[in-house]
Amino acid sequence: MRILYLHGLMSKPTSVKVEWLKDIGHKVTSPLLDYKKESDKIYQMLQELCIKSDFDLIIGSSMGGFLAWSLSNQYDIPSLLFNPSLAANKIKKPSVISFVNHSILHTVIFGRDDIVVIPSETLEHLKDAKSNFEYTYESNGHRTPFSTFSKHFNALEKNNDREFELYIRSVDFNG
After folding, report:
1. 61-110, pLDDT tens digit by residue?
2. 174: burial class by Cβ within 10 Å (0-12, 13-18, 19+)?
3. Of 11, 23, 49, 72, which one has the fewest beta carbons inside 10 Å?
């Protein structure tokens, strides 16, 4: 799978999560996002990356989740979002182009004890935007433990495999 991984505001593009995705055979692009110095250029750079890279999935955490959600809507790429910073808050976010997309699926994982990105506010934002999403709560705060990340990535990947198998069974290859 070709994955675009977008880190959060205080994180780095290299992490145990990114390395694990690579180790299990995925092609992962994880750019350095300088949210403070290059806020006005980030989205355009990511748009260019999406155009030339044919990603199968965008994963984003916190501020990276905000960008992942926007790019996912624009380019019809499914997303896996961990505590995405979608609702208005005090943190300056990169400028994005808003796209309404009711068909692409966003899988959202909330930290039940998150006090940085308030889950109920994000959920309200997703409902107001009429997004196509599924969500669950985990017993963490804002930071997503590796065990939670891998659990939800594996579940998403398994679900995609099942949908592909059902599709193959439904197609009449003999005409």
Report:
1. 999 999 999 999 999 999 999 999 998 877 778 888 888 788 888 999 99
2. exposed
3. 23
Q: How far apart are CA 119 and CA 123, in angstroms?
A: 6
What domains does the chain contain, in order, with CATH numbers? 2-170 (3.40.50.1820)
Residue 95: other Cβ atoms inside 10 A: 12
Phi, psi of 61 (to 5 degrees): -125, 130
The conformation of residue 111, written as its DSSP 8-state character, comes to E
Residue 133 burial by CB count (10 A; 0-12/13-18/19+): exposed, middle or buried? middle
What pLDDT is stored for residue 171 in this prediction? 39
Strands ordered across the beta sheet of 79-82: 27-29, 2-6, 57-61, 79-82, 105-111, 132-138
Q: How far apart are the first and last CA of the chain?
A: 29
At residue 150, the 3 state secondary structure works out as helix
Are the beta carbons of 7 and 33 closer than 8 angstroms?
A: yes
Q: Given this model, what pLDDT does residue 165 score?
A: 46
